[in-house]
Design a protein that fits this description.
single chain, about 350 residues, BirA Bifunctional Protein, domain 2, 8-stranded mixed sheet, two-stranded antiparallel sheet, rod-shaped, binds phenylalanine, nucleotide-binding, ATP binding, aminoacyl-trna synthetase
């Protein structure tokens, strides 16, 4: 029996001191394995007297259970400690603020183009596109501006060079987005409802003119579209775009070769302390040209003017961007000055929408 006490001390101390699972397994084999010390002692029970066998057997079983329990307990403690260690190592403060990443900003022209597109999409207008290098026919003739027409001079057109001996009229950098009217009608026919945002070019440069700028064309053709529809669409657009409860538009009789009748549209505004306010006041600001599409334009695009009619308008995107966001000089739009872009730019993550807010 003395031997058993020594064994007990040896193994329980060994278990307590074991540093990992491998050491525990060695101890288990040494004590309880097939050739372990306890197992060997069990085997000796056969040569004992029945009385001896009873007391020694019971003591051995007790010792075996004790060592087994100690082994299990230590094993659990080791794996708890391992888990604690891992949790400590992988600890992460999820309340720390994120590291801001500079992602660049959205240019005001892109922002406003998105805003305009979102508003007209909401009114059922799809987006149409056309090339920036345009043929003389699409940019002028098809829009009822024949070669000798004075409007050709007013456009300050950039001409592309033709090869030597090629006497066809040169291509041009499109002077407006109106050629997309022709392309869209020729491709889709009528009825049609599209806007066409994009770059246009004219030889001009001062505080409010740059040789390249942006327009958005609007076109709605159906059997019974009138100036009243044009007025409603433009009012609805301006109210939503300028994010004011009420706007007042003034239609001024004007002339464009591709519309009849034609109107330039002004919006009511005020200049208080150099601050422009849209919606109220006693000043007017011109924002676009418009009118009922000329029958000759419909014909040029393969749409029968006896059956179809509608309105068109053309608006300067840079101009309405300046008005809405208080940007005084158009030339800054195209200087790629990072300080200006960061000041006037918009977050890439704010997608303008009519329901979610245009500019926030
Ligand atoms: N294309 C005209 C311009 O650039 C604008 C316009 C478009 C006017 C459509 C009437 C209809 O000035």
């Amino acid at each position: 029996m003395d031997g058993l006490d020594a064994l007990k001390r040896k193994y329980l101390e060994g278990v307590a001191a074991a540093g990992d699972e491998a050491a525990l397994e060695d101890l288990r084999l040494a004590a309880l394995g097939k050739k372990g010390e306890i197992s060997l002692k069990m085997r000796e029970l056969g040569q004992m007297t029945p009385e001896q066998r009873q007391t020694t057997g019971a003591a051995l079983n007790l010792l075996k259970d004790e060592i087994d329990a100690a082994l299990r307990g230590k094993k659990a403690a080791l794996s708890d400690a391992a888990l604690d260690e891992r949790l400590r190592a992988e600890w992460l403060d999820v309340t720390l603020p994120g590291r801001p990443r500079r992602m660049g900003t959205i240019h005001p022209v892109s922002q406003v183009t998105e805003e305009v597109t979102a508003i007209f999409a909401d009114m059922g207008f799809a987006v149409a596109e056309g090339p920036q290098i345009e043929s003389d026919w699409f940019n002028f003739d098809a829009l009822n501006i024949p070669p000798e027409h004075p409007a050709r001079q007013e456009h300050d057109t950039f001409f592309m060079a033709r090869g030597a001996g090629d006497n066809r009229p040169p291509h041009v950098l499109r002077t407006h987005t109106s050629p997309v009217q022709i392309r869209a009608m020729a491709a889709q026919g009528a009825p049609i409802r599209v806007i066409a945002p994009g770059r246009v070019y004219r030889m001009d440069m001062d505080q409010t003119h740059t040789p390249m700028f942006h327009q958005v064309e609007g076109l709605a053709i159906d059997r019974d579209i009138s100036m009243a529809n044009l007025k409603w669409v433009l009012e609805e657009f301006c109210r939503t775009y300028f994010e004011v409860p009420e706007v007042e538009l003034r239609f001024r009789a004007s002339h464009f070769p591709f519309t009849e009748p034609s109107a330039e549209v002004d919006i009511r505004c005020s200049w208080e302390g150099g601050q422009l306010k849209i919606g109220q006041g006693d000043s007017w600001m011109e924002i676009l040209g418009s009118g009922m599409v000329h029958p000759k334009v419909l014909s040029a695009a393969g749409v029968d003017p006896a059956e179809w009619q509608g309105f068109a308008f053309g608006m300067g995107i840079d101009r309405i961007a300046m008005l809405k966001y208080g940007i005084p000089d158009l030339r800054a739009f195209f200087e790629s000055d990072l300080r200006w872009l960061r000041h006037y730019g918009f977050s890439a993550l704010d997608m303008p929408s009519v329901f979610g807010g245009l500019s926030r």
